[in-house]
Amino acid sequence: MDLRQSEEYAKHLEGMGWIVKRVEGVNYFIKKFPLIGSFMKIQRPANIRPETIEKLENNYRVWRTVIEPETTLQAKTLKNRGYKLSKSPYLPTKTLELDLTLSRRKLFDNLKKDCKYALRKTEKLPLFTQPKPEVFHASYKKSVFPRRYVPSLKNLTSLKANFTNSLFIASHNGLSDNKLYHSGAIFLVSGTNAYYWQAFTDEDGRSTLSQYQLVWQGILWAKSLKCKVFDFEGIYDSRFPNKSWHGFTHFKKSFGGHETTYPGAFTKTTFPF
User: Fold this and answer.
1) How do strand 84-85 and strand 19-23 relate by DSSP bridges?
2) Rounded to whole angstroms, what are the CA distances from 181 to 110, 129, 216?
3) Cβ atoms of 158 and 16 closer than 8 Å
4) Phi, psi of 224 (to 5 degrees)
5) Range of the domain at 129
6) Would you say 223 and 38 are in contact if contact means Cβ atoms under 8 Å apart?
7) pLDDT digits (tens, 9 = 90+) for 127-137
8) With a threshold of 0.70, does the pTM exceed it?
9) 254 in a domain, yes or no?
10) Backbone angles phi and psi of 17, in degrees to 5
């Protein structure tokens, strides 16, 4: 089951202002907008139930529904029901997954040469697990804003509160008195899957290759929790090209693993009012 179909994620989005309807194990996320009605998204559901979807669309005056199916069979069903493939998916349509049932030795052996080099170089890098959310957020914002979206402090705090198993980890190079972190990463666990959820790195962090060590620590943490899969949450997909994804895709692939693809996002616009 995808993390977005978990009860933890449902509680997280409720805390972020979404209406969440959980019907027969499937999460339906609804956001109300003044005057125009509501938007609904259903992400990687185990089952697609048209009757439930139509009922919620009517009850909440939904003007647009987005469904991101897990399988090509689900995608075919959506096409037959009038949904159109979106050019801009909401979730990554291709990801990389590590088999955490492998031994630690085997996981290390499967790393690419550049990754092994980076881990040796960062063996003594100062690491901080579960840093204060305020400092983590400030570091995140300073590192990437305005080039990239930065989740709010409320968002980060909600993730930490709702996921029993979460790891916030950060680092700095120890060469200055700067109290902010140069790199950080968030890892979440849902069921037997671990997710490389979000991350940031500034220029100093990139120069020390710190993100390699943070991800490796996240992998080992997930393995210690008996997780079976480590999901890198997105790599470059030529079907929906985004050139900016090439860099971190190379980075993620240096850890090994196998690629998993998804059909994309399917949308339907309706005006029931």
Assistant:
1) unpaired
2) 29, 12, 18
3) yes
4) -65, -25
5) 101-227
6) no
7) 999 899 999 99
8) yes
9) no
10) 100, 5
